[in-house]
């Protein structure tokens, strides 16, 4: 299953070069509905919010790289299934390709419930759902 990336794993960002460069079959712009973005310390968090939309890329790993890449991304995001201290959860969600029509089932890392609650009560919302555009002057 492809990944939907919206922060430091996007092409041109530092974690893309460290984790994804040379290990993907395709990378294409996309959007994920039902989420909003909050600015974090150096990276964003996606939080469930009806009516929201987040911009990012749909990244498909090369078949031989998938298992190792999935494990490395889980480690990067400090995600461990069932661990209440994980800041992120990896969930399956639909992303929409740039054509606005084609839907792709992807993995995406979203803020864990405790982190999401903290962000909703006092985090910095990225209004347009595009972390890269928010960071650029």
Automatic annotation (TrEMBL):
SUPFAM superfamilies in the record: Gamma-glutamyl cyclotransferase-like
Residues that span the membrane, as ranges: none
Limits of the Gamma-glutamylcyclotransferase AIG2-like domain: 3-133
Coiled-coil segments: none
Pfam families cross-referenced by the UniProt entry: GGACT (PF06094)
Signal peptide range in chain numbering: none
Protein name, UniProt field: Gamma-glutamylcyclotransferase AIG2-like domain-containing protein
Species name: Streptomyces populi
């Amino acid at each position: 299953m492809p990944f939907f990336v919206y922060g430091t794993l996007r092409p041109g960002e530092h974690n893309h070069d460290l984790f994804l460069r040379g290990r993907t079959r395709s990378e294409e712009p996309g959007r994920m509905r039902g989420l909003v973005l909050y600015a974090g310390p150096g990276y964003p968090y996606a939080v469930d919010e009806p009516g929201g939309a987040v911009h990012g890329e749909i990244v498909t790993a090369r078949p031989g790289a998938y298992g190792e890449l999935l494990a490395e991304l889980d480690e990067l995001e400090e995600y461990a299934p069932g661990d209440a201290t994980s800041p992120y959860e990896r969930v399956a969600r639909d992303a929409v390709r740039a054509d606005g029509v084609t839907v792709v089932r992807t993995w995406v890392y979203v803020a864990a419930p405790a982190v999401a609650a903290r962000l909703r009560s006092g985090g910095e919302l990225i209004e347009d759902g595009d972390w890269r555009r928010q960071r650029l002057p």
